[in-house]
Amino acid sequence: MPTPSRVVVVPQQQGEPLQVLDLTLPDPGPHEVVVKQYASGVCHSQLHTIHSPRPVAQILGHESTGEVTAVGSAVTGLAVGDTVMVTWVPKDAAQAARPGTGVTLDLPDGTQANTRSVFTWATHTIADEMFVVKVPSGIDREVTAIIGCAVITGAGAVLHTAGVQPGDSVAVFGVGGVGLSAVAAARKCGADPIIAVDLVDDKLDFAKRFGATVGINASEVDPIAAIRDLTRREGVYDILREPVAGVDFAFDCIGVPVTMRQISEVVRAGEFGRTRGGVAVLVGVPMTPLELDSRFMLLGERTYRASLGGSCSPGEDLPRFLQWHADGDLDLDALVTQRYGIDQINEAVEDLERGRIAGRSILVFD
Ligand SMILES: [Zn+2]
């Protein structure tokens, strides 16, 4: 049976406000699942879509928690009534090996809106089973909605892409929802120090709740010099016979030119003749080319690495991060700092754009 849904639609015409439309979701195809949603996160990367030219209207949102209401004929491991989380990363190797289809919805004016992956800014969504992960029933219906993008992206970058070990030094540039998840994961991995870098003192103080041991306000001091001072290793020398200084891992959770460059400059050199240098990890979605000091990278034998969706396998990682939340290692109740109804979507997007969201905001559906 087709399912009515209230859906946020980004009009084809750039600059128009987002619309909330009463649409009808089709019956699920063989590999599709219909999910009645409890809540969805509002991700910063969606602003890129909203501000980019598009051939047709778009449907957005890529993290949520909800309940299955219909499954296609070929779907395995999901049944009506299951509590699930929707994400944008294929949940396991078998599902990643299928092409998947994206979703196209008919609009009342005769045009269409589509997404190449999932949409979760809607009371009900339809998605390929590869993006739908069964989780235990009885989990918090609202704050868990941010695991499917913010948490996997930030915490996964630390856990999987970087593989941070106890005692490693870590710097996280940009402590919004993704960066705070990275900080929490660094604490869980036993990193020390955990240096948060941002432009606002309140955000740095907030990051200490998640495990940051030092806050650096980059609007007041040079974060490169400050981090090198904090991490100088006497008796360990680089190729220039200078003491090695800098962190083992630096994460850019923003993705603008200045932070993309700064993370490369704050990772330490290797101890020449003995060990390799630190690793800079790009996490935030960039819109510009990356410029590096190639000589600096080579002489310190430093690595620059990219992390997409935290290198996560959601089938394993979503339950893992739910457990972290249950164990008190990842305070999602604190990380969700703002809630909106679906009809407030334009307000939600504007608040995000103006930097008014300390952690992560969510849409809550009745
Ligand atoms: Zn996202």
Strands, total number? 20
Query: Counting H and I runs of at least 4 residues, what is the number of helices?
Result: 11
Largest sheet: 7 strands, mixed
* Ends apart, CA distance between termini: 21 Å
Strand content: 25-35%
Q: Which CATH architecture of the largest domain is right?
A: Alpha-Beta Complex
Bound molecules: zinc ion
Structure notes:
This protein has 366 residues and is α/β, with parallel strands linked by helices. The chain has 2 domains: 173 residues, Alpha-Beta Complex (Quinone Oxidoreductase, Chain A, domain 1), CATH 3.90.180; 159 residues, NAD(P)-binding Rossmann-like Domain (Rossmann fold). The strands form 4 sheets. Strands 3, 5, 6, 9, 10, 19 and 20 form a 7-stranded mixed beta sheet that branches. Strands 13-12-11-16-17-18 form a 6-stranded parallel beta sheet, with helices on both faces. Strands 2-1-4-8-7 form a 5-stranded mixed beta sheet, with no helix packed on it. Helix 8 links the parallel strand 17 and strand 18. Helix 3 packs across helix 4 and helix 3 crosses helix 9. The structure holds zinc ion. Zinc ion binds next to loops.
